[in-house]
Write the structure tokens for this entry.
Amino acid sequence: MTRLVSPPQTLRGDVSLPGDKSIAHRSLMLNAMAKGTAHVTNFPKGADTLSTLRCLQTLGIQFDVQPGENDSLAIDVHGEGMDGFTEPSDVLDAGNSGTTMRLISGLLAGLPFYSVLTGDDSLRNRPMGRIVEPLSQMGAHISGRQQNNYAPLSIFGGTLKPIDYVLPVASAQVKSAVLIAGLNTNGRTTIHSPSPSRDHTELMLAAMGVPIVSEYGTKIQVDPKEPRAVNVEIPGDISSAAPWIVAGLIHPNAQITVRNVGVNPTRTGILDVLQRMGGTIELLNKRMQGGEEVADITSQSSDLRGTEIAGDIISILADELPLLALAGTVATGKTIIRDAQELRVKESDRIKTTVTGLSNLGAKIEEHDDGMVVYGGHVPKGGSGTSSGDHRIAILLAIAGLTGSGDTSIDDEEAVSISYPSFWDDVDRLSGRTTN
Ligand code: S3P
């Protein structure tokens, strides 16, 4: 469907976000591998996290799912250790979710049965060789299309051996797949990452009593152990906060507070960059919640200057780069994004979809192999665009529409439901078009 977004005079208010998608996937998968019942709250209803729930149900895991607060779910996970998984009688469908497919592959690698994993058109065209390679080295039998590079994947797992593995790219999904497989070996698994990536798997496994050590986020070691069930209260997703933080900074008359946001340092690269660009951002009420740091974040209209975003920081803000490019359009000077070739293998080729999407709205932005160059002072002035089925691009275009100078129509707007089903309600509320 198509959605029309008009820039409001003011953009003000509070937002309660859906629970963190990355933590949500892990809360179900890791507790499914434990023995005992874990209570998971603030579980987001996005399509991706529901894909993980459904795949685990198809693998025989029992869940009690109840409505939770703030349009979330409260889920009891009844894990029975690795014996609780049974051979699925049907194909496992990960939908649009790379995290579901890659992390569940790590789990299936250690299970002595046959399963097939597939996904939607986007996911079947995303690289899976990166997990097939290490999991095969560990002893799992995995095949996929085009020399084992693409789903559908068929997996026959079993007893695994530990490996010492150098990740070719700093991917949290690949790291997590290997760590999860590492729980079902008879020795120490070591992973070397070129730069740190989100560490939710490491934090949750540590909370579950698994011996796991991380040196600077670039050398991670895990010893095999059955995780202990832990309750997880999922914090708000900083990747869903990001559109509101950016909107608060670049709209000329804005003040927005996003509540209860996870601010794990492996996720807050976007805050560092926006502050470096001159953004007025405040973190209030900092606290710990279930092993993760949480805060309320306020942003308000600011004059931004261009910056360069490259090197190690890329792997801790990759999902937010389209929004940082948008921030660059209103800044003074150039914003240069480099070393971000991984954007090309996300739910869409996000270098292309960001450049095309923002250019169509009047921004001046160049595509490069590994990033983009944004020329500031060319504020989006409205027009039309498509999400290309990518939730982060739908949200990017909506924020460009709210902060630009004319109306913006967005095709395939329902893509937001992958990570943020209530996004359009929040757009209406913060624009002052609805009151509740
Ligand atoms: C995720 C890791 C990131 C991110 C994705 C979620 C995760 O991908 O882009 O949206 O939950 O582990 P990488 O595997 O490229 O780090």
Observations:
- The CA atoms of residues 130 and 174 lie 7 Å apart.
- The chain has a mean pLDDT of 97.
- DSSP finds 13 helices and 23 strands in the chain.
- The pocket of shikimate-3-phosphate is lined by residues 22, 99, 171-173, 176, 197-198, 318-319, 342 (CB under 6 Å).
